[in-house]
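Researcher: Here's my situation. A collaborator sent me these components and asked whether they could plausibly form a single complex. I don't have experimental data yet, so a predicted model of the whole assembly would be a useful starting point for our discussion.
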Amino acid sequence: MQSQLKRGTLELCVLSILCRGDRYGYELVNIISSCMHITEGTIYPLMKRLKDAGSIDSYIVESQEGPPRKYYRITDDGRVIQKEQETEWRSFSVAINKLLDGEEKQ
Amino acid sequence: MQSQLKRGTLELCVLSILCRGDRYGYELVNIISSCMHITEGTIYPLMKRLKDAGSIDSYIVESQEGPPRKYYRITDDGRVIQKEQETEWRSFSVAINKLLDGEEKQ
DNA sequence: CATAGTACCTTGCAAAACAATGTACTATGT
DNA sequence: ACATAGTACATTGTTTTGCAAGGTACTATG
């Protein structure tokens, strides 16, 4: 079930990481893996969606340690989206914690 | 997009509310609506899934103010699930906040 | 020359939120 | 008598997205 929790937050995670600097796909998998289970089958389709939406763009860099890397860079539009989603996440998690702690009106 | 954030957490919300007392479906929609957008099309299928899984059971109570109400009661198994999911949620939200704040290893 | 690690990508499946739609009861107003 | 609104249940079909499984290809190591 763990997997369902990630819905909607992975995009925010990726955008937030890219806000702090360019990364390539495989690197993103490793970074996020330190916090939660994730595989390439999740990241690459997500990067494609983000690129199609104009939130990120990309460029290729050759590597001596293996195949060429596709680096992703966040766009100005992407930064706006990231801010929106971060705000959404903060208020959402507050709302959930409220319901967990039983602060709804009777 | 808001909708995607709810994945996996609605179940926890419902179980947490039922931990504090029995509720009927329409009532749950109203309680949760005070925190986030939700409709009956989400709750009723969820209640069916929870019942099939043995996390809740239900009983009918006649009402003078409208049609009969189907009350849901959490089972012992459901309480175990609720605790597990609450723990999962807490550690998940910590992990997300870490990624947002850029505490991943470089 | 086999294996492991790096790095890319696609296909197909499954879970779950939700709009839309439908039924049926009670109460209120006209 | 009849329309409307509120309460309360339920189902169908669509959409999104996470992810296992599979594939390609490069470099380095034993």
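Model: Some features of this prediction you could bring to your collaborator: The helical segments of chain A are 2-5, 9-19, 25-33, 40-52, 76-101. Chain A has five helices and three strands.
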